[in-house]
């Protein structure tokens, strides 16, 4: 199909005749008759455009027939539309009026057709040149952190996960990221890689973001919303652009920081003749990552007596009772958050038997000495990222454009799943062919990636065991340890004598042996031990199209479209299990949608626009489903009221379907029956961690525990229904308001809960901690509700100053049900019905993974034109504390609230078409973490010089 589409494109190249060319010329000035350079001029309804020169003049060749309309826009000025006729096309004169607030943005994401953002039927955010230029953030992608309701979880300097409306995840597969219409996700791992393989910063034209269910038009992967990043068209943005950015981070870290980084980008675009244009992009970032260096004792429900309880009420949880002891010299169970190999629930701990000769250690759990993340990586935190793009564009007619594009991303980064995982050399290619007209598009693309990484925690355990088996280490520890006389630290020192030291030849040799051997392969010389490396070299092919029938139907706005997708998994069994015959899985999906809208005028200033959309999607492993959406917008003058109801569902990612951990090791297990079989869950059942603890406490019998064993039933899609209302207005061109309220209900929610699988298949194994921890994906029977509201305000103070801010509130509640549909009671005997998921009495019964702050807000003071050359912004961000439940080794903890002050000052040099920018995020250098176990983020300071559209 891809080859057929390319053939059609090239045939059309030769079939379209040449039309006469007209050169539109003019000049753009401000209210003081001063020339404006860099003003964008675009012919409405086309991608044909140009920008003004330093003297304000422009020249725009076109084959369009006159009359036509051109749109003139510039940051900080009100957009103007001008009609070009036969008597003025060579002498267009435009005076732009300065304005602090721009609210007449055109978006395409909400309805798949261009529309005024103020009249969109759902909540939409848009970031463009104005926001990128004024943001203190170091990149357009990072500017998302100032958008209301957005939570960015920083995995690495180059990898940040976007989260909206609860259920925050380091690898969010409920949120769809599109780059020029292409899915940004990893085909096998199932989540978007954000800016690791995104567009070069210089080539980003805009980012549109829709919080909330968007499946009615975009399919089952847009359960919590979508982000559409669009690049610059070479017909409009031409010439040579370059950016040099240098900066520093890790400031104030004793013995480590500060560390410098550099970021270089270049873009060249050119139109050749009237029909052909091309662009070339490249960006290279190198520096030192923010370091995961939280060495405090891990807070996790795997700890004994983790919850504080009320004995008078059935030991119901009242909070966290676990008190961390960060001193490994006195703490037998010290388990550092970013120390690996010492994990109490992942192969780093030993429980002495009840009859052990040293009575002070009987039934005691002792952790080994672990290694820090920096020691295991051995690269001193170095990080790099390369992004490149080449696109060829050809105008088949004045309104139809064909394009071919290659998009490339490469870099190293760390991500957090059940464990921390390091990808030393990720590579991804995307190839796209597209034909786009004013009322249709046809698109075909493929994603090809090479992603090999290794499990940091499991590698630490392997290094320890390669040097000395856990049982031998524990024996030597026990021979020295005497309670109250010889500390845990001294006993550890004795047991650690001769241990592989970080950076030594022996340490590096063993680490590399395990990190470079796949988890399906035995490492020679280590008694059957498996490697810790995995791969996802999967690929996907996607074909889609849309047609706008509005001009044909006339009585209503009607669009229809559809898509076909094919996944070819390629993990070699290291991340996703193989079929019985040893072959890899493939996944086929298809879908189609229809949307009908009609704007009805009820008076001179009152309109109502109802819209109905419906989509059908089918994945080969699940029954198909419909996702309808109904919405309406009432506009009364400058006031716009919106309301919508929409449903969505999500197909599990390939990993949630088929993942299987390495033999004998903990990790993620997919919900498919074949994954359960591969994990041995039929012959050796696993049990929810909360049920195991209830059994140990005598609250349930052994028979009851066995009856609650995980039973791989029909694994199905996750579903949501959302109701939303909102209001948007611009009053007297000074006050911009956008407010919303939503209510969502999830069913068949897919969550990877912690299950304990006994080592020998016996219930008695739990008493000696002889079990492995599995994160099993399944549809729970709970009813989950998310309620939220928020608003954004922007106010023009005069003289170019703008004060803006936003606030978002959201809370998740749950009604817990067992497999028979009965409401689960807390330990006090009360039904758990619509209670906050962060409440300890709810969390005590199992993880719910809402992971979202209830409150967050941003405040910003900006002036893009303090003078004709200087602009400045200062922003304050605050995020509430949040309850985190995460992964196999991460933990359960109240993550503290955090705040950040960001600032930038920019200086324009018009003669050289350049801007110098001095900026920083978290300029007060108050370190914080956006997730448990993630790198702690400090100040990032930079200076950049950008040259824009030289040699045009």
From TrEMBL:
UniProt superkingdom: Bacteria
Molecular function terms from GO: siderophore uptake transmembrane transporter activity
Residue span, TonB-dependent receptor plug domain: 117-225
Main location, first listed in the record: membrane
Subcellular location: Cell outer membrane
InterPro entries: Beta-barrel_TonB, Beta-barrel_TonB_sf, CarboxyPept-like_regulatory, Plug_dom, Plug_dom_sf, TonB-dep_rcpt-like
Coiled-coil spans in chain: none
GO cellular component, one term: cell outer membrane
Membrane topology type: Multi-pass membrane protein
Keywords: Cell outer membrane, Membrane, Receptor, Signal, TonB box, Transmembrane, Transmembrane beta strand, Transport
Membership in a protein family: Belongs to the TonB-dependent receptor family.
Protein name listed in UniProt: TonB-dependent receptor
The organism of origin for this protein: Spirosoma aureum
Highest classification ranks of the organism: Bacteria, Pseudomonadati, Bacteroidota, Cytophagia, Cytophagales
């Amino acid at each position: 199909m891809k080859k057929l589409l390319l053939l059609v494109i090239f045939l059309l190249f030769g079939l379209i005749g040449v039309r006469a060319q007209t050169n539109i010329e003019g000049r753009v000035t401000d209210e003081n008759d001063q020339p404006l350079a860099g003003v964008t001029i675009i012919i409405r309804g086309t991608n044909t455009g140009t920008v003004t020169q330093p003297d304000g003049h422009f020249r725009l060749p076109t084959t369009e027939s006159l009359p036509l309309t051109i749109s003139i826009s510039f940051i900080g000025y009100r957009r103007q539309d001008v009609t070009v006729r036969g008597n003025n096309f060579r002498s267009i004169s435009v005076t732009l009026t300065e304005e602090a607030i721009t609210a007449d943005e055109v978006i395409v994401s909400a309805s798949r057709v261009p529309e005024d953002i103020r009249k969109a039927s759902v909540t939409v955010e848009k970031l463009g040149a104005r926001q990128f230029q004024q943001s203190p953030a170091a990149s357009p992608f990072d500017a998302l952190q100032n958008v209301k309701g957005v939570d960015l979880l920083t995995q690495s300097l180059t990898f940040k996960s976007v989260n909206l409306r609860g259920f925050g995840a380091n690898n969010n597969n409920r949120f769809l990221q599109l780059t020029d219409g292409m899915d940004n996700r990893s085909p096998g791992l199932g989540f978007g890689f954000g800016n690791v393989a995104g567009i070069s910063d210089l080539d980003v034209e805009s980012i549109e973001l829709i919080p909330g269910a968007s499946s009615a038009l975009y399919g089952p992967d847009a359960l919590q919303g979508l982000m559409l990043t669009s690049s610059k068209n070479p017909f409009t943005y031409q010439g040579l652009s370059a950016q040099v950015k240098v900066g520093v981070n890790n400031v104030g870290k004793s013995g480590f920081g500060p560390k410098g980084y550099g970021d270089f980008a270049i873009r060249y675009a050119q139109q050749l003749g009237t029909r052909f244009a091309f662009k070339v992009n490249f960006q290279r970032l190198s520096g030192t990552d923010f370091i995961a260096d939280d060495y405090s004792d891990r807070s996790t429900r795997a700890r004994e007596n983790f919850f504080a309880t009320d004995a008078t009420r059935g030991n119901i949880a009242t909070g966290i009772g676990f008190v961390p002891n960060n001193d490994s010299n006195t703490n037998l169970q010290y388990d550092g958050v970013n120390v690996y190999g010492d994990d109490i629930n992942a192969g780093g701990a030993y429980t002495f038997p009840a009859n052990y000769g040293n009575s002070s250690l009987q039934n005691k759990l002792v952790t080994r000495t672990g290694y820090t993340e920096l020691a295991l990586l051995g690269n001193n935190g170095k990080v790099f990222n390369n992004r490149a793009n080449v696109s060829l564009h050809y105008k088949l007619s004045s309104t139809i454009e064909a394009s071919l594009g290659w998009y490339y991303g490469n870099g190293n980064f760390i991500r957090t799943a059940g464990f921390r995982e390091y990808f030393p050399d990720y590579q991804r290619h995307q190839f796209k062919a597209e034909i786009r007209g004013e009322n249709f598009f046809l698109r075909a693309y493929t994603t090809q990636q090479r992603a090999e990484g290794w499990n940091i925690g499991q590698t630490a355990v392997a290094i320890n065991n390669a040097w000395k088996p856990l049982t031998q280490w524990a024996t030597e520890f026990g021979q020295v340890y005497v309670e109250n006389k010889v500390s845990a630290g001294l006993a550890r020192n004795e047991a650690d004598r001769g241990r592989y030291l970080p950076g030594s030849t022996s340490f590096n040799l063993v680490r590399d042996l395990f990190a470079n051997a796949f988890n399906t392969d035995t490492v020679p010389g280590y008694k059957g031990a498996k490697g810790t490396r995995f791969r996802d070299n999967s690929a996907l092919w996607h074909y889609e199209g849309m047609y706008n029938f509005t001009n044909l139907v006339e009585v209503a706005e009607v669009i229809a479209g559809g898509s076909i997708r094919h996944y070819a998994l390629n993990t070699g069994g290291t991340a996703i299990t193989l079929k019985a015959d040893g072959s890899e899985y493939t996944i086929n999906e298809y879908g189609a949608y229809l949307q009908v809208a009609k704007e009805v005028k009820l008076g001179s200033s009152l309109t109502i626009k109802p819209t109905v959309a419906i989509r059908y999607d089918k994945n080969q492993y699940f029954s198909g489903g419909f996702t309808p959406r109904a919405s309406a917008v009432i506009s009364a003058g400058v006031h716009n009221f919106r309301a919508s109801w929409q449903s969505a569902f999500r197909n599990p990612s390939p990993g949630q379907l088929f993942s299987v951990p390495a033999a004998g090791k903990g990790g993620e297990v997919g919900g498919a029956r074949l994954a359960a079989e591969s994990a041995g869950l039929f012959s050796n059942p696993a049990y929810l961690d909360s049920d195991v603890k209830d059994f140990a406490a005598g609250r349930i019998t052994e028979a009851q525990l066995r009856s609650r064993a995980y039973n791989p039933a029909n694994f199905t899609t996750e579903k949501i229904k959302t109701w939303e209302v909102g209001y948007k207005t611009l009053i007297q061109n000074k006050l911009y308001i956008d407010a919303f309220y939503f209510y969502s209900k999830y069913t068949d929610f897919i969550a990877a809960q912690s299950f304990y699988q006994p080592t020998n298949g016996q219930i008695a194994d739990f008493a000696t901690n002889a079990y492995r921890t599995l994160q099993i994906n399944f549809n729970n029977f709970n009813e989950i509700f998310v309620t939220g509201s928020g608003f954004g305000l922007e106010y023009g103070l005069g003289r170019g100053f703008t004060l803006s801010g936003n606030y978002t509130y959201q809370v998740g509640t749950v009604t817990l049900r067992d497999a028979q549909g009965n409401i689960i009671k807390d330990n006090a005997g009360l039904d758990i019905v619509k209670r906050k998921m962060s409440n300890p009495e709810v969390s005590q019964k199992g993880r719910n993974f809402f992971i979202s702050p209830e409150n967050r807000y941003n405040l910003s003071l900006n002036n893009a034109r303090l003078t004709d050359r200087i602009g400045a912004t200062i922003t304050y961000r605050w995020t509430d504390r949040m309850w985190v439940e995460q992964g196999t080794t991460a933990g359960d903890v109240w993550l503290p609230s955090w705040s950040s002050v960001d600032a930038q000052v920019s200086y324009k040099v018009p003669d050289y078409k350049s801007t110098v920018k001095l900026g920083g995020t978290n300029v007060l250098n108050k370190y914080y973490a956006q997730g448990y176990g993630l790198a702690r983020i400090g100040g990032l300071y930079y200076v950049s010089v950008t040259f824009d559209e030289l040699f045009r």
